[in-house]
Specification:
- The complex is a heterodimer of chains A (446) and B (748).
- Chain A contains 17 helices and three strands.
- Chain A is mainly alpha-helical.
- In chain A, strands 1-2-3 form a three-stranded antiparallel beta sheet, covered by helices on one side.
- Chain A is globular, with a radius of gyration of 26 Å.
- Chain A starts with a helix and ends in a 7-residue tail after the last helix.
- In chain B, strands 2, 3, 4, 5, 10, 18 and 19 form a seven-stranded mixed beta sheet that branches. A five-stranded antiparallel beta sheet of chain B has the order 12-11-23-22-21, with helices on both faces. In chain B, strands 1-8-9 form a three-stranded antiparallel beta sheet.
- Chain B folds into two domains: 49-247, Penicillin-binding protein 2a (Domain 2) (Alpha-Beta Complex); 251-306 and 317-630 and 642-676 and 683-723, Beta-lactamase.
- The chains are: A mainly alpha (446), B alpha+beta (748).
- Chains A and B meet through α9, α13, α15 and α16 of A and α1, α2 and β9 of B.
Chain lengths: 446, 748
């Protein structure tokens, strides 16, 4: 396909929506990374919006711009290569995916308690991001052959293994958020590939039940251990008092027996609790994952991120505090504000109105994606496009949900918006994939 | 068909996404529209801190406007709780930088750290208010902390006023001290706007006038970042300093009294042969009242202390020590002492008013009454009531006190304000007690003998022993009432309250508690009797006032404590000048041993100081006043006929005693007194002064300093001897019986 034809057939609504999101993102990144350290910021109040743009912190904006330019290149590559050709190399891409993810585990470096990056020259790059798009492409290849043959659980098991293998590698980093993205993409694509909806629903239900069991059994184990620990310490105190009170007389045998009994009980409870964490999530992961349900339990510890994010968004009100007017942002109360919690900055500085605009842009993006999936020339195209749409939707919902306290904090970035090279390039590649499907759409609509 | 299916699925998916977005929009709407106010408040609390500015407390000035208590700015280190995981490291660094600071004297890093953490724990519930960690930090420590600024987020250095005491221990137990408000006090005074960490007067004047002294806290609103580092000042509300107190106390006289009292305590052991139990610190008190107003010119209580230890943060060891020695206690009003013979004016009043004796009633004292002995073996011979006071004759008072009984004596004790609070404007005043039959019953509920009143109780009471217990302020006020002819004033120590801009907020006038119902004639006899105490040859305070340039009335007291070692309190009451009384003094030295030999010289020193300062009102200190007067008086051309005066006094004492008897000698005495005290005497006290002084009274007293008006060599030689300090010997007669007849018996 010639370049001219590609240019002529691009979905410009999609393109400009994406450009709008990216530009908005650049402004917000510039605002989010600006910290006030003296009172010079008071002068900003007198400036109008355009002049304020000049006072952004351009360090991250410039970098992000670089990633966008790189992303444009990769996007074009994705458009240029016919998507069928990509799907043909499913096996190769799948192995590449596994290799990249394994490389992270072997020689990736650790940040924020997880191993996610590999250093390539001057760039730290995050294979788990790229594995998402690789997953979409390879799973399309995998599913196309099985379409209409996915009615029983038995039929789905190969799919689970196919998705599960790279997912396990990601979980090992550990990166729960990206793993959940995989699950979402898989379920959506299975749905499109005519898997029995009820079966999918059952799987989702089973997953939810599993999660609930996990929470409640952990809560039970955790609480029993804490309770026994408390009882034990009380008894210990009593023992000490008794020992101090009557050094000459032998210790009370009743107390001694009670103590050893309780100690045994405590030790078993503790062992069970530890075993639970050994096979499932770690204690701190559990806490972080579910703190959003009640951030007030530990406002200055695990609940701090959510608490500050809620204050940022809530204090924005209807119209926000204006660009560079966010006290939560610029006095650095809001953590990770240019990446995962960037939406909170939008909420604080542009208020409900700004948040609605951003949500609208994303909705438009998703709408265009669905249209592209619908107009695809073949099922491969539909599946690819739908995978990308599902990925975007899940990201947007989970990220924004996280900033406003209805989703767990899992470190999922806001696509095309959060600062981050790997994420930006991957998302633009995903857009390229959509455009590729669009460029090669069916010409006649009915 | 295939496409239709796809379309259906897409529509379903779209509905799902729309639903999800709707959830987000609803959630955002809830946060940003419904709860916006709540979060806006929280955001403001996040980035704005109201940092309180401590108001300087009001100054405390003496009657001449000299500052006794002020404020001085010191560096304070505060910590704001940041909710950071590395708070522990910050505290550690800070503790290291504060080693060797006065607030943490003698503590190692671990202890300082523990102390800081304890303080922060106490404030745990008020997250964003700064916690004072160290007050009065040295400049070096401030520099050290500034160097480590970046390692110490949340650590703030501030300047804060603390109490400053330019005169050290002067008046300390009366002033009281200031400390951080305690929980109970905070609860009690919450509605007055107190907060944790505020200063609060704990004792003395600081406590009594807390609401005037405290001032109003200011605040600084500061914008801070997430690490608590101030980014911008949003505004300052300046604190309002507290109101100043102007006392009735003269700091120079106070100093003289405190020093004299300290020497008195030293004499307690050397002269008074006090047997001080181990671990006990002797207390002493002296009060000087203006008899015309009830103004407290001096209130000394020893041991004293430097309240500055509280300003810089007292260690618990220091505090325990202060408690143990009783330094925090104002012994002048909070401790009661057995009055001993200083009570005899009450007894004398009761006897005269009750008609038990007449002014001319004379007894022959053989040295004992029934089983109770006089302090002087062999007795005083023929004694009437004036002489009984003069020589402190126990037998006289035993004999008639037994007749008077507790009701009559008690009535006049109370009449003079003994056994009741004087109502001075200081907290913690003790009431003391007058012996009564009921009191005995109360004290010995299970002893059928002791619970009844016996004759020896009356005789003991008559000489100020037994259950008599009074404070120094009560005794001074009682002496003042005798001196001024029966007006019992309510003593007061604060003269005026002045706002920081100099306006008078309140001023306190003399308050007459009551006119005591004792006849003028009786008072006159008592005045004469106690004036005779100061006269040779056998007045018990004759030696104390030997060579005094003024005439006085006084009464000694040596009160048996009743302990195994036979310790006695030394007491001395006096007023002067005898003719036109101005001041009354009470001096009490615990275990002082002898009223005349130990407490007396203290009272003399105080009275001397008073008259010197009267002459030289603008001197900065007593020493300066003395120096000026010495220079001024050198050319004194008038001879001081000391011998002549003594003759007059001798003559008077040997004269038959009747009321108004001394009248005829009086003008003579006055003239002589005027001449000997030289010029510069207060006009109202000696109107005839014009006769004796060659210097015009309107001349400012500084004059002699510059131009020498008279030649020093003109001074008659006998003047020298006259100004020699009085010999501080115990009076010839005063000593104690070897075997007291009864355990509670007191002799003098």
């Amino acid at each position: 396909m010639s370049i001219a034809r590609i240019v002529k057939n691009l979905d410009y609504t999609l393109l400009f929506t994406a450009v709008a999101i990216i530009l908005f993102g650049l402004v917000i990144i510039g605002s989010a990374s600006l910290e006030f350290t003296d009172d010079s910021f008071t002068e900003l109040k007198n400036l109008n919006f355009l002049l304020r743009l000049l006072h952004l912190d351009f360090t991250y904006v410039a970098k992000q711009f670089l990633w966008v330019v790189a992303g444009l290149f990769f996007m074009f590559v994705m458009i240029y290569i016919p998507y069928e050709d990509m799907v043909k190399h499913t096996r190769l891409l799948y192995v590449l995916n596994l290799l990249l993810l394994a490389a992270v585990l072997v020689k990736g470096h650790v940040a924020f308690g997880a191993q996610r990056w590999i250093q390539v020259g001057p760039f730290a790059f995050q294979p788990s991001e790229f594995s998402k798009i690789l997953m979409i492409i390879t799973f399309t290849g995998f599913l196309v052959k099985r379409k209409g043959n996915l009615n029983k659980l038995k039929d789905l098991i190969p799919c689970f293994v196919f998705v599960g293998t790279p997912m396990l590698l990601i979980l090992a980093q550990p990166d729960l958020g990206t793993s959940m993205v995989f699950v979402a993409i898989m379920l959506a694509m299975l749905f499109l590939a005519d898997a029995r909806p009820l079966l999918l629903l059952e799987i989702i239900a089973a997953g939810l039940v599993l999660a609930a069991v996990l929470i409640f059994s952990h809560a039970y184990l955790h609480d029993t251990e804490r309770q026994l620990e408390k009882q034990l310490s009380v008894l210990e105190q009593e023992k000490k008092l008794a020992a101090a009170g009557s050094a000459a007389t032998p210790a009370d045998p009743e107390l001694e027996r009670k103590y050893s009994h309780l100690l045994k009980k405590y030790q078993t409870a503790r062992a069970r609790h530890e075993k639970f964490h050994k096979y499932t999530l770690k204690e701190y992961q559990m806490t972080r994952l579910f703190i959003f349900l009640n951030p007030e339990k530990d406002l200055l510890g695990d609940g701090y991120h959510i608490w500050q994010s809620l204050i940022s968004i809530g204090s924005g009100g209807l119209t926000g505090k204006g660009l560079l007017g966010g006290t939560q942002t610029h006095f650095t109360f809001l953590p990770v504000r240019h990446t995962d919690f960037i939406f909170s900055v939008v909420g604080e500085e542009f208020g409900f109105a700004g948040a609605l605009v951003l949500l609208g842009l994303f909705f438009l993006l998703i709408l265009r994606g669905i249209r592209i999936a619908l107009e695809a020339r073949d099922f491969v195209g539909s599946l690819l496009a739908f995978g990308v749409v599902a990925m975007f939707s899940f990201h947007v919902f989970v990220n924004i949900g996280m900033t406003c306290g209805i989703m767990p904090v899992t470190g999922i970035p806001l696509p095309l918006f959060s600062y981050g090279g790997s994420s930006m390039i991957m998302n633009m590649m995903a857009l390229g994939l959509l455009q590729s499907v669009h460029v090669r759409r069916r010409k006649i609509l009915f | 068909m295939e496409h239709k299916k796809l379309e259906r699925k897409m529509r379903f998916f779209l509905a799902l996404v729309a639903g999800a977005f709707l959830v987000l929009v609803v959630r955002l709407g809830f946060l940003q529209l419904v709860e916006a106010d709540k979060y806006q408040t929280q955001a403001r609390q996040n980035h704005q801190r109201l940092i309180p500015i401590t108001a300087p407390r009001g100054d405390i000035l003496d009657r001449n406007g000299e500052r006794i208590v002020g404020n001085r700015p010191v560096y304070t280190v505060s910590v704001t709780y940041l909710g950071l995981k590395n708070t522990d490291r910050i505290v550690n660094t800070l503790a290291n930088l504060l080693v060797g600071e006065k607030a943490y004297e003698g503590m190692d890093v671990g202890q300082i750290k523990a102390r800081i953490q304890e303080k922060m724990q106490a404030k745990k519930l008020r997250l964003y208010e700064p916690v004072h960690v160290a007050v009065g930090v040295s400049l070096e420590a401030v520099a050290r902390i500034e160097e480590h600024r970046l390692d110490l987020p949340g650590v703030v250095i501030d300047v804060q006023p603390v109490r400053d005491y330019p005169y050290g221990d002067l008046l300390a137990p009366v002033l009281g001290y200031v400390g951080e408000i305690e929980k109970e006090q905070l609860e009690k005074h919450k509605d007055k706007g107190y907060q944790m960490g505020d200063n609060f007067g704990k004792t003395g004047l600081e406590r009594q006038y807390e609401e005037f002294l405290r001032g109003k806290r200011g605040a600084r609103l500061v914008e801070v970042d997430a690490l608590g580092r101030p980014v911008r000042d949003l505004g300052v509300e300046a604190p309002t300093p507290g109101n100043n107190l102007v006392l009735t106390v003269d700091h120079r006289l106070q100093r003289a009294a405190q020093d004299a009292l300290a020497r008195g305590i030293a004499n307690a052991v050397t002269v008074g042969r006090a047997k001080v139990p181990k671990g006990k610190t002797l207390s002493a008190a002296a009060v000087v009242l203006d008899v015309r107003t009830g103004e407290v010119l001096t209130m000394a209580s020893l041991p004293s202390y430097d309240p500055a230890v509280f300003a810089r943060g007292v260690s618990s060891k220091e505090y325990q020590e202060l408690i143990k020695t009783g330094a925090l206690r104002n012994h002048a009003i909070e401790t009661t002492y057995i009055p001993g013979s200083t009570f005899k004016m009450v007894t004398a009043t009761a006897l005269l008013e009750g008609g038990i004796v007449r002014p001319e009633t004379t007894i022959f004292d053989p040295g004992y009454y029934k089983t109770q002995k006089d302090w002087k073996p062999g007795g005083h011979g023929r004694v009437d009531i004036r002489r009984a006071l003069k020589v402190s004759c126990d037998t006289f008072f035993y004999m008639f006190g037994a007749q008077a009984g507790p009701e009559l004596m008690g009535k006049y004790a109370r009449e003079y304000g003994l056994g009741e609070k004087t109502g001075i404007d200081l907290p913690g005043e003790e009431q003391g007690r007058v012996p009564t039959r009921e009191l005995k019953k109360e004290l010995h509920p299970n002893d059928p003998w002791e619970s009844r009143w016996h004759e020896y109780d009356s005789t003991n009471m008559a000489i100020g022993q037994g259950e008599n217990k009074y404070t120094a302020i009560q005794l001074a006020n009682y002496m003042a009432a005798i001196a001024n002819g029966g007006s019992l004033y309510k003593p007061y120590i604060v003269k005026k309250i002045i706002s920081p801009d100099g306006k008078t907020m309140a001023s306190f006038a003399p308050q007459l508690a009551r006119k005591i119902s004792v006849s003028a004639q009786t008072l006159k006899i008592i005045q004469e009797g106690i004036h005779m105490v100061t006269l040779p040859p056998d007045g018990t305070a004759a030696a104390v006032f030997a060579g005094a340039p003024y005439r006085a009335a006084a009464k000694t007291g040596t009160a048996e404590v009743g302990d195994a070692a036979g310790n006695k309190h030394a007491l001395f009451l006096a007023y002067a000048p005898y003719e036109h009384p101005e001041v009354a003094v009470s001096v009490i030295i615990e275990y002082g041993g002898m009223g005349s030999g130990v407490a007396g010289p203290v009272a003399r020193e105080i009275l001397d100081a008073y008259f010197i300062l009267q002459k030289c009102p603008e001197a900065k200190s007593l020493e300066e006043a003395k120096g000026r007067i010495a220079r001024e008086e050198e050319p004194q051309p008038f001879p001081g006929p000391e011998t002549e005066r003594q003759q007059v006094h001798e003559q008077r004492t040997t004269e038959p005693l009747r009321s108004g008897g001394p009248r005829e000698t009086r003008p003579n005495v006055e003239r002589l007194g005027g001449s000997e005290s030289g010029e510069g005497r207060q006009p109202q006290s000696l109107p005839e002064q014009g006769l004796s002084g060659s210097q015009p009274p309107e001349k400012p007293p500084e004059q002699p300093d510059q131009g020498q008006p008279r030649q020093p060599q003109q001074r008659p030689p006998e003047q020298d001897g006259q100004r020699k300090p009085p010999a501080q010997l115990p009076p010839p007669g005063e000593r104690f019986p070897l075997i007291p007849p009864l355990p509670t018996q007191q002799n003098e």
